[in-house]
Specification:
306 residues, mainly alpha, 75% helix, globular
């Protein structure tokens, strides 16, 4: 029974980690190439989830709504980069933090005005609403398996795009040495607009896929943005491989910790204390993981820059 529970939580951690990777991949490239702190990245995740919910209701189809929401969010992201964020590239980090924090507040209020303050319902496809049997005694959500499959597929496509194509070569060059890439004739502004659009699309995929599991509500991007920053700090700024490894570590540590630490504490403490202490300790495990990684490798596990 314990083995089945461990396997189930490992699958949950894999699913959560892959969605974190979608968020962190765009964020780490933005940070790595342009040295810009973009707190509004979580707002694109929220916008993608809301657009997915609205389009699914309007079209009556989850699968029709998904690509439409991804494309619309990418367009919004590129428009935001051209209209506002491009002006912040040469500013200091404090200015970038303040400006993108303002974008968070504006996005939250716009969403609240359009959709209202209450959470919006987003249902998974009817065909994937039930569990499937993976092993004797282990039934797992078919929708969560879909999330894992989509996350792995996007990770592979993103790896091929970054590692095997000319555009990916330019992205890696910009992340490694922006000044040299500019001197060699790379259009950094245009490249960054494309990268930002890809990052927004990845946010939309994460928001659309997690919407049926988590609440689609105003402010949903802030909490997950913190986890995305933890991922890129652990993995190394500007590194897609680092974002993937960091996301897997954070997803597994967070999920397994929340599942098993309360059980562990019940072996030594009264149930009341264990039920309160377990979730509290589990919530700080990823930050302890980040501290250990930074102590061991201050630039992260796979930094893009030397």
């Amino acid at each position: 029974m314990t083995g089945i529970l461990i396997l189930e939580q490992a699958l949950n951690g894999l699913q959560f980690g892959l969605m974190l990777f979608l968020l962190a991949a765009g964020l780490t490239l933005v940070f790595g190439i342009m040295d810009m702190i973009n707190l509004a990245h979580g707002s694109l995740y929220m916008i993608g989830a809301y657009l997915m919910a609205a389009l699914a209701q309007a079209t009556g189809s989850f699968w029709v709504a998904l690509p439409l929401a991804v494309i619309a969010t990418a367009i919004i992201g590129m428009a935001l980069e051209i209209a506002l964020l491009r002006r912040l590239y040469q500013r200091d980090h404090l200015t970038q933090v303040l400006a993108t924090f303002a974008v968070i507040l504006i996005a939250n209020e716009v969403i609240r005005l359009i959709f209202g303050p209450q959470p919006v319902m987003l249902n998974p496809p009817a065909a994937l609403s039930g569990p499937v049997t993976l092993l004797p005694g282990l039934s797992y959500s078919s929708y969560r398996l879909l999330i894992i499959g989509i996350g792995l597929a996007v990770a592979v496509v993103l790896y091929i795009l970054v590692a095997k194509t000319r555009t990916g070569m330019l992205v890696r060059a910009g992340a490694s040495n922006r000044e040299m890439a500019t001197a060699m004739g790379v259009n950094i502004k245009g490249l960054f607009t494309v990268v930002f659009g890809v990052g927004a699309a990845l946010c939309a995929i994460a928001g659309a896929m997690l919407g049926p599991i988590l609440a689609v509500q105003v402010g949903m991007g802030e909490s997950i943005l913190i986890l995305a920053f933890v991922v890129i700090v652990i993995g190394g700024i500007g590194s897609i491989r680092g974002a993937l490894v960091g996301a897997m570590l954070v997803g597994l540590v967070d999920t397994v910790g929340r599942a098993f630490l309360p059980m562990l504490f019940r072996e030594f403490l009264p149930p009341t204390y264990a039920s309160n202490l377990g979730p509290a300790v589990a919530s700080i495990l990823i930050y302890l993981l980040m501290a250990v990684v930074l102590f061991w490798k201050p630039q992260g596990l796979f930094p893009a820059r030397g």
